[in-house]
Amino acid sequence: ASVCQYFDIAFKVMLLGDSAVGKTCVLVRFKDGAFLGGNFIATVGIDFRNKVVTVDNAKVKLQIWDTAGQERFRSVTHAYYRDAQGNLCSIKTLPGCVCCRMLRTRGCVRLSAFLSSALLLLYDITSKSSFDNIRAWLTEIHEYAQKDVVIMLLGNKTDMAGERVIKREEGEKLAKEYGVPFMETSAKTGVNVELAFLAVAKELKHRA
Ligand code: GDP
Ligand code: MG
């Protein structure tokens, strides 16, 4: 039985993909149920949000890391990948490690609670370049991420049907080629956003 009243098990999830595909909006939609419309605010460096979901009667905490896809932030992302070998506290480049802080202040989180992690890889269905870059992202992931990382491919902005340039089938085909699950989402309408995170939480919980 868990000694922590807040959750039974915790995992790190990281959002990846080109700039402007909707990573921050997908995270805000999942966390707050709202759409960050209007102005595009470039994420600087890496930030995270926590959310607890229920999987098979267990409280699963997802610590979701939002990243900037810009080339100039690549080194930051790499540093995270390299240290994401299962031990969150080994991340020295990032401030505000909740795991360390909670260990010290509450003593209720075991490091081993951070058993594995997942990557949500996003492209924008209205942007061919963001879709074409998915292969490069996957190459990078295979180079830097831990081997048993849970990966999911998301085609975002399905509400923009009129401007769609990447067919659903193309996303499905690419996902199948790499053996990863696939969903189309919209941070604007919220379609499939919660489902995607729940699918990842379920997979992480089952593998743990
Ligand atoms: P990031 O760089 O990947 O974090 O992208 P953002 O989350 O900042 O989103 C980039 C732009 O796309 C912003 O103007 C958002 O309002 C917009 N956006 C994000 N998700 C969606 C979506 O699902 N539908 C629509 N129509 N716009 C979106
Ligand atoms: Mg962002």
UniProtKB/TrEMBL annotation:
It is an enzyme of class 3 (hydrolase). One of its GO terms (cellular component) is membrane. It is found in: Membrane. It is a lipid-anchor. It comes from the Eukaryota. Its EC number is 3.6.5.2. Keywords: GTP-binding, Lipoprotein, Nucleotide-binding, Prenylation. One of its GO terms (molecular function) is G protein activity. It catalyses: GTP + H2O = GDP + phosphate + H(+). Belongs to the small GTPase superfamily. Rab family. This is small monomeric GTPase. It comes from Salmo trutta (Brown trout). The lineage of its organism: Eukaryota, Metazoa, Chordata, Craniata, Vertebrata. The chain holds residues 26 to 233 of 262 of the full protein.
